[in-house]
Design a protein that fits this description.
The protein is an all-alpha fold and 283 residues long. The protein has 14 helices and no strands.
Length: 283
């Protein structure tokens, strides 16, 4: 066997081994989450840990979807859906206009604005918590899905603007110039030329925005207190009581909470992959 061929085979084996390890590290926690949600109580609290439960049950899912115990969780599922899509929709509109302006209009302060927005996004939530709470209280928006959506827009807009600018930079300016020669204005050019070309990037931004809103816990914990506005992360945490933890309901709630983002990602998979790869062509 030639030495070069042996090295290539060794490299290939190493790559496949690392890929397999990566897949297992991602799928193993999900597998254990599903198994724990179906396992009986004795298997969950058994010592040593039982990787294969002796019995399976779907009672927890029945309680979540139909029982009185899952009423708060069902309300939280509705609230999370409204907040995630409302905050993402508003943030996407603002970020799209802002990213187009930063990409196309010349100016010395563009880099300053971009890095300022990034710094705003990276700011610890606790640093602006008090000011946000006072503002929402004055607007009578505490413990409402509308107030929580506004709070989410405060970190989604900088994040989505930063992402969308990279995608809009890849759209050829010649397409816009041709449209303007035909009499199209800036807004028409943005909607008819830039947006259709940048659809993969917009889809990727939408999915990331929905995921960030769906999984956010800190602001939801502070600004909501009743079933009127509580979101899924807070509802799952409420399965932890003062003297006991309902691990079964927590894992079942985790499985249910993970399904909508997974389904959304599968539906948008083609645009998502294209968007994540095209955005790296030009910064």
């Amino acid at each position: 066997m030639r030495p070069g061929l042996g090295r290539r085979r060794g490299k290939t084996v190493f790559i496949y081994a690392m890929a397999t390890l990566l897949v297992l590290s991602i799928l193993a926690p999900l597998f254990w989450l599903v198994i724990s949600s179906l396992a009986g109580l004795k298997d969950l609290v058994a010592r040593p840990l039982r990787w294969i439960p002796s019995s399976l049950t779907v009672e927890r899912y029945r309680d979540i979807f139909f029982g009185p115990v899952g009423l708060s969780f069902r309300n939280a599922l509705r609230n999370s859906t409204v907040v995630a899509f409302l905050a993402t929709a508003v943030s996407l509109v603002v970020a799209l206009v802002a990213s187009y302006s930063l990409s196309r209009f010349p100016g010395r302060g563009r880099s300053t604005v971009l890095y300022s927005m990034l710094a705003t996004y990276m700011m610890p939530p606790v640093a602006i918590l008090l000011s946000l709470y006072v503002t929402l209280r004055q607007l009578h928006l505490v413990n409402t899905v509308w107030g929580l959506s506004i709070v989410y827009c405060s970190f989604l807009i900088p994040f989505l603007t930063w992402i969308l600018k990279g995608f809009i930079d890849t759209v050829p300016k010649e397409l816009e110039e041709a449209a303007m020669i035909d009499g199209a204005g800036r807004l028409a050019t943005l909607l008819r030329i830039v947006v259709p070309v940048a659809v993969p990037g917009i889809v990727a931004a939408v999915l990331l925005g929905v995921l960030m809103s769906w999984d956010e816990f800190f602001y939801a914990l502070i600004f909501t207190s009743t079933d009127q506005a509580t979101t899924i992360p807070v509802a799952i945490a409420q399965f932890t009581k003062r003297h006991e933890v309902d691990y079964g309901m927590m894992t079942a709630g985790g499985v249910v909470a993970a399904l909508p983002p997974v389904i959304l990602a599968l539906v948008l998979q083609r645009h998502l992959i294209q968007g994540l790869t095209s955005g790296s062509v030009k910064g």
